[in-house]
Structure formats: C-alpha cells, structure tokens
Amino acid sequence: MEKTSPETMGRCNRSIISKGVMSDGSLVFLRILHQTPKKTVVNFPGPPGIMSFLAWNCRGMAKSRAIRFLKEIINQLRPNIIFLSETLVLKNKIEEIRKAIHYGGCFVVDAVGQGGGLALIWKNEGGVEIKGTCNHYIDCEVVCEHIGRWRYTGFYGCPERQRRQESWNLLKQLARESQIPWFVIGDFNDMMFDHEKQGGRPQPRALLEGFRDTVSDCGLMDIGFTGSEFTWEQSRGTGLWIQERLDRGLANHDWRTMFPIAEIKVLEVSTSDHLPLFLDLNKKVYAPRVRRFKFENVWIREDQCRKIVQESWEQVEGRSVVDKLEFCCLKLEEWGGGS
C-alpha cells in the first residue's frame, strides 16, 4: 500500500489541470474544480450491448511487466473502461499506454512525488462524462444507448489509518452530489468485517465499523464477488503472510435495479500486490419486467444458506428492512441458481 503525502487530500478542493486524449490524437485540456466541476463530455454512439470494466491498483505503470500484464487482460476480457490507481506515473506515460492498447480516450490524475496517480481509460463505445476528480477518485457518468445514464466512480482510499476518516468524508461528499444510479469501485484500503483479513493483527473494530457505517450512510451496498477471497497480500510464503480484502465494488439501490445480475470477478493473477477486479454487467441488460423471488424449501437444509442470509443482512446494516430483504433475496438467488 503506497503512502500518499498528507497534502494530496487537500488537492481535491483545488482546480486541477489535466488533459483528455481522443483517438485522433487531439488533446482536450480540462480544468476541473471539485466543488463546481467543469464538464468534459466524450460521447460515442457505439452499439448497445454488454459493458465491462476493469479496476486495478497496479502499483506502477512504468514497468514493462505491468504493461504486458494489462495488455494480456485486455486481450482476454476486453473491458470497455479501465480504472488504474497508484499508477506512479504522469499523463504522458498513460497516453503511451492508451495508444498501445488502441483505446479511444483517457483522463489522468498525475502521481504526486513517489506515490499516487489515477487513470481512467475508455474505448470508443458508450459515453464518458467526467464530473469531478482529485488524487483519490475519478468520478464520471457513463452514457450508453438503450441502457441509460449512470454514475461510475473509481476510488482510491487513504492508506494511512489516521486518515481513513478523510476517505469516508470524501465518499459521503460524493454521495450527496447525485441521485442517479451509482457504482463505486477500487482500492478503498478498508475492510468491513473481521473475516476479510487473514494473518497479522486483527483490524481495529473502530475502522471496520467506521467504513461499514460510511457505506450505509452513502446508500451503498457491497455487490459481492467471485474468485479469491482476498485482493491484497503481503509477505507470502513466510510466517508474516497477511491477506486482506481491500478492493471491492459498491452500488446504490438504483444501480442494482438497473444491473441486477452484474458481477465482480477477482482475477487470480497480478504483477501487483493487489488483484484486479473485473466488473461484468452480465449477459443481459436490465429491461423492466415482473419477476418474483422464490425461496426453495430445500435450501433450509444447507448451512451455506444460513451463512448467506446472515452475511447479506450484515452488509446492509443500517438500511431499511425492505432493502435488506431485497439484497438478501438477490444473494440467495445468485447462490441458489448455481447450486
């Protein structure tokens, strides 16, 4: 977890000069102020269809090994939008990578000193409208024909424990800025439950509860994942091996209604100490229809059923009973459909 300088959080409230790069090579210079961000609209009329997203704390994109790995992921999964954190490089390097992978546009927040750096890279499909940015997030709206408009935020939380409250305040501020369907993904440098850490000292209760309360206050819920239980590790192969789930995807109720079977897959290989997250909006796109949840009595015999109910209920702690039931039904359907 790369340290971020104390002054980086303050830069969220100052204007940032950066640039967007289009596929024809032209540069669009952007001046964005977090409080009243100047819109940068990049609309692509591409055909409707499945969209997918990659989020990865790459721990540096200057190394050829990391670039090769990213290219391999793109060749296999072809994500529409890529969010990178801790790039440790400036915008010119991200532009080189964008050209090498043949994507249509990008937006960059430069690294500060030896740490930080964010990048959002997108294909010539759908639309991306940058709404606000700082050293800890890139916030945009995604516009897709026949699907609608929704909000996508790539987030990087403060790694220092004493500054976690700043990350929580940032999330709460972002939650107040829009009421449309919203999805947040990235390395939050936070955990919600004890079981999300293995090895080392237990996570302080105050940090677990603080992050959980923040997620709830923002009207968000963890959409879950498939793949590795942990997304970050340290000192593998030694007695000091630590594993944690620091990377995740959070969504509000409207987003989950728009994409009810969206799924995050934790990829099993990485050149970083963080595993990449692949968000698949799934084989279908939401179309309004009546669908009733059906609980199968045979599930009662399964220990996993009780565990899913308990964990899903805890994940939306503080929400209404209706929201809790809806999320619980969603998780049971995901599990029961494959059992």
Automatic annotation (TrEMBL):
InterPro entries: Endo/exonu/phosph_ase_sf, Endo/exonuclease/phosphatase
Endonuclease/exonuclease/phosphatase domain location: 55-274
Membrane-crossing residue ranges in chain numbering: none
Alphabetized GO MF terms: catalytic activity
Pfam family, one: Exo_endo_phos
PANTHER family: BNAC02G09200D PROTEIN, DUF4283 DOMAIN PROTEIN
Name of this chain's protein: Endonuclease/exonuclease/phosphatase domain-containing protein
Organism of derivation: Daucus carota subsp. sativus
Source organism phylogeny: Eukaryota, Viridiplantae, Streptophyta, Embryophyta, Tracheophyta
